[in-house]
Amino acid sequence: MLRIPCPYCGERDHSEFSYGGPADLVYPDIDCDEMEAWSEAVYCRDNPRGPQRELWHHLQGCRLWMVVERDTLTHEIAGAQPVQAALKPILGSGS
Amino acid sequence: MSGYRLDSGGRVDRDHPLPFRWDSQALTGLAGDTLASALLANGVSVVGRSFKYHRPRGVTSAGVEEGGAIVTLNSGPWAEPNAKATTVEMYKGLEAFGQNAWPSVRFDLGEVNGLFGRFFSAGFYYKTFMGPLRGTRAWMFYEYFIRRAAGMGTAPRAADPDDYETAHAFCDVLVIGSGPAGLEAALTAADSGLDVLLVEQDFELGGDLLTGDPLIGDQPAGDWLRTRTAALQTHERIRIMRRTTAFGLYDNCVAGLVERVTDHLPGAPAHLPRQRFWVVRPRRVILASGALERAFCFGDNDRPGVMTASAAAAYVGRYGVAPGRRALVATNNDSGYRCAALLARNGIATTVLEARAEAGTAGARLQELGVELRLGTAPLQALGRTGLTGVRTARARGAAWHADQQIECDVLAVSGGWSPVVNLLSHRGVRPVYDATLAAFLPGEIREPIHVCGSAAGIWDAGDCVRSGQSAAAAAARALGFDASLVAMPPAGGWPTPIRPLWEVRDEIGGVLGKSFVDPQHDVTSEDVRQAHREGFVSVEHLKRYTTLGMATDQGKVGNVIGLALMAEASGSSMAETGTTTFRPPYTPVALGALSGRSAGSHWRPTRITPMHRWHQRQGARMTEAGLWLRPWYYPRGDEDLEAAYRREMQIVRERVGLVDVSTLGKIAVQGPDAAVFLNRVYVNGFLKLPVGKARYGVMLRDDGVVMDDGTTWRLSDTDYFMTTTTANAAAVLAWLEQLLETRWPDLLVRVTSVTEQWAGFAVAGPRSREVLAALADDIDLSDTGCPFMAVRQGLLQGVPCRIARLSFSGELAYEVYVPSGFGEALAEVLWATVEPQGGVLYGTEALGALRIEKGHVAGAELDGRTTLDDLGMGRMASTTKPFIGSVLRHRAGLADPNRPRLVGIVPVEPGQRLRNGALLFADQNVSGHGIGWISSVTYSHECAGHIGLGFIAGGLASWMDRTAVLSDPVRGDCFAVRVVAPCFVDPQGERLHA
Question: Which three-class secondary structure string do you get for B673-740?
Fold first, then answer.
């Protein structure tokens, strides 16, 4: 069981969360009509061995979306912070 | 073997006899016994029959590693097969049965299997029956008998009648094991200020100390244990859980425990669960799980009466049971001498067969007890069939062995060395490292917050184990920021005379005499291991699977190290090169009931009911499951069945009026200044120009262009929208909207909130629906001009605040009416009071579905996560003037293929034939493969006077309109012609809903 330090609720079981993909993936702007750009964003994923920044949704908690730093090899979690920049100074980092 | 109870000694209570039953015999044990010790005390020697060969088996250990005394407990639905008698705590009225034998374990006709031993060697199954015979009738025939003959106990067929619970716990440090290292670690950690949870799988604390031997410093083990236990039990920072097994260790040190709450209680109180599954989240773990003694192999080493030396010591020292009258202790290390001394002190004639050339200080002490010591000697073959009668010995000559003489005995206690219990570390991916000097796998490098101490770390001396416990606890305390003075970790090892690694005794010329078992539980012999090597199985993981060595409930506790050593020997490589297999959770078997806890039966998942649930029940509704929800399915009148009821309900809706509960639809408040912009990006159709007081049907896609969900969204004010989703997708749509707002478009000022449970709703459908609502509305103009199609109105309905929208799923003039949930039942009452006198009906999901199929509206069966707008015939809905989620990728080449399966209507060519959903569609009579389409939804239609369906067919209406295809349903045996028609069977112009 991974334990994720939600910046709002504190440390919780990963079963309360859902995974939302890599955090640094930038989706094309909604106005973008390039098939290539959308294909790249929707289908292509890196598969890093080691630390990865990823999105998690505290689905059965505060429903905050957060960026979790997780090592894909050891499952070690370095910390979590809210995705929304405006919330960072208020909630800080969950690590 | 002729075991008997000693007059004194041990931790059993001789004033507390406990009657129990073994097969048909009434026997008596004592409080403090295990089933195994009680059976030994009663002179029972054959306790089980082996897996493949049905050889008689006795008690071979005193713990979880037991491979012989495997029994069935209880009977009827309470029967529990494959229990290890060595871990079953005795209680009054315990019932146990021999298994895998007929008629009994003493006289088992299956023993004939032993005569065909060569057919049952490694991989026999694959070679014999997967070869030329595979798939033939002969294979079917043999397989049936082999499955019956080879196997373990029989699981009960009835549902588990017991209750189980799930519980959660937190602590600073979880200490696993309560031997000298674990007890000391728990006390030291608690004294340093840590919150400690100590778990012990046994019913008594103490581990190996329960045998009552070694000295710890100058203190007898019993005294030390007593004072330590007393200190632990009164310590405010220590919680102790006995009868609790830490069966798995997971990420972040999260541990799975199973606590046996009432298994040891006769007539357990009804309020207690049988077992509790604990999820413990410690900050650090101290692993003091001990070590398991292994034997070495020799001929017929499975004869009842052969056991490990530590087991013989435990039966004497802990349970006050003599396992026999004439004992041989065979050892290759110093630890066997404790057993010999205990047996001798309790009046059992004892001879030590020492595999080493000298025995050092350990041997010298035995002389005082009158024990004969034979150096350079080991057992070559055990004699006797259902009980040990003697041993043929071998003399060492260098590394080889030569048959020597025969010695009479009825118990043979063997110590081949110790294997640290590193199973839980293996769960964490820590690979053990072989130490050739200690002949043991020791814990490898650990990167997680886990500290290993005691014999789990290969530390054999009890005093050193205590110090290692202090050391581990101090390290844990300091890592958590507590004050603790560091204590040096004692090195592994601790025997004055080194062990002589010994895996198998066989005669240099004659080889193995009889069968030499590596893993008795699975009947894997040393010859099986060598055969696997000869057949090219080099990897130990392959060896394990080919021979079944150390699989299943055993998880390599007993035979793994020996098997690896024999493999290394056969391949001429070192243990380190040979490697080891991975131990997987659970460490010991866990009842499935414990894992599911209270989540069984109707509590398997939550049940959601609408505010009108009880009202529906009072109206005689039959309910059906829709995801977690219970919804009215149909409302039978008299002895109507489903078919009759839904046909009546749908007909009356079309002719007059009906009510259906739609509270289960997902409802999301979309609010904020940018709500219109947001909806406009989420839905394929335009939402910017939706005026206040109007609703619009919308479809949303996923990023990849596939349809995600549909529903209506009502504009209540400039900044307030009320979105409805399908019942099934409510949660997923909310999470998706949140994800978009938080991760992709944080600049949009919009909030989304689930209000599904805040609003209760009915759809009022049918030509008379306006009359019904008009009669009830206090302040809403429901005329066609006052409330046109898709209008949204808020007001009072008999004084109840409500939201009404003129929407239709049925194709009739219809409205959806929502009130705050608390008014749900009141809404039902007032609506029904008006509908019933009009000759209207209540209708359930079956009629709801029938009406929408007639109208060609898509639902869950069509929105299956694979269909696009164009597949559903809704391509024209998509705006071409704005971007939306999925607007680019929905034009991918594959999705634009005109030959994709597209939505169509289906009717049978022959009137009266019944369509079934799931049937496949084919172009012609050549019915094979997966076809060119399928039927997704079907119903009976009054208007069409027969069955109709919706489905998908390659090319859709463009290729198939009014053409004939072939329906095939191989499962239910249908095959007939159908005609493809437009997917709207009723009022295609929409005159009724605009009425």
Answer: CCHHHHHHHHECCCCCCCCCCEEEEEEEECCCCCEEEEEEEEEEECCEEEEEECCCCHHHHHHHHHHH
b/e sequence B339-359, b meaning 16+ C-beta within 10 Å: bbbbbbebebbbbbbbbbeeb
Q: Do A27 and B883 touch (CB under 8 A)?
A: no
Q: What is the DSSP string of A5-72?
A: EETTTEEEEGGG-EEEEETTPPPPPTT---HHHHHHHHH-----SSEEEEEEE-TTTT--EEEEEEET
Please state whether beta strands B326-331 and B349-354 pair in parallel, antiparallel, or not at all (unpaired): parallel
Write the single-letter amino acid at B670.
V
Question: Encoding tokens for residue B537?
Answer: 């199985």
d(CA A85, CA B890): 32
Residues 6+ apart with CB under 8 A from B157: none
Per-domain residue ranges for chain A?
Answer: 3-21+38-91
- Of all residues in chain B, the one with the smallest CA distance to A85 is B746
Per-residue pLDDT, B120: 59
H/E stretch holding B252? none
DSSP B776: H
**Which of A13, A18, A30 best probes binding to B when mutated, by most B CB atoms within 10 angstroms?**
A30
Chunked mean pLDDT (size 10), chain B, 995 residues: 88 97 95 98 92 89 94 93 95 92 69 60 58 58 57 83 95 98 98 98 96 81 94 97 97 96 91 97 98 96 96 97 97 95 94 94 84 96 94 95 96 97 94 94 95 98 96 98 94 94 95 93 91 88 85 78 92 87 89 93 92 98 96 97 98 98 98 98 97 98 97 98 97 97 95 97 97 93 96 94 96 97 96 96 98 96 96 96 97 94 97 94 93 97 96 97 96 94 94 87
Smallest CA-to-CA distance from B679 within B729, B706, B716 is with B716
C-alpha distances (whole Å) from B256 to each of A1, B199, B239, B487 are: 10, 11, 16, 30
Q: What is the largest CA-CA distance in chain A?
A: 41
Strand-pairing partners, residue B524, are B519
Set of chain B residues whose Cβ sits within 8 Å of the Cβ of A3: 251-252, 254, 281
Hey, which bits of B152-305 come out as E strands? 164-176, 196-199, 215-216, 219-220, 238-241, 244-249, 255-260, 275-287, 291-293
Nearest to B82 by CA among B94, B99, B63: B99
d(CA A20, CA A57): 7
A3-21+38-91 adopts what CATH topology? Folate-binding fold (3.30.2270)
d(CA B786, CA B147): 76
pLDDT at B142: 59
Task: Tell me which residue has tokens 């910390």.
Answer: A79
Residue reference for tokens 């012999």: B525
Residues from chain A contacting residue B743 (CB–CB below 8 Å): 20, 55, 65, 83
At residue B72, the pLDDT reads 94
Q: Which amino acid is at B233?
A: Q
* Coil, helix or strand at residue B280: strand
Joined together, the tokens standing for residue B698 give 């919308």
Q: Does A65 touch chain B (CB under 8 A)?
A: yes
Tokens of B206: 């103490």
Task: Write phi, then psi, for B231 (nearest 5 degrees).
Answer: -65, -40
Of the candidates B616, B647, B650, the residue with the CA atom closest to the CA atom of residue B631: B616
Query: Torsions phi, psi of B415, nearest 5?
Result: -120, 115
- Please indicate whether, in this complex, the C-beta atoms of B281 and A75 are within 8 angstroms of each other: no
CB A45 within 8 A of CB A22: yes
The pTM of the full predicted model, rounded to 2 decimals, is: 0.90
CA dist B905 and B858 (Å) reads 11
Strands annotated E in B332-389: 349-354, 372-375, 377-383
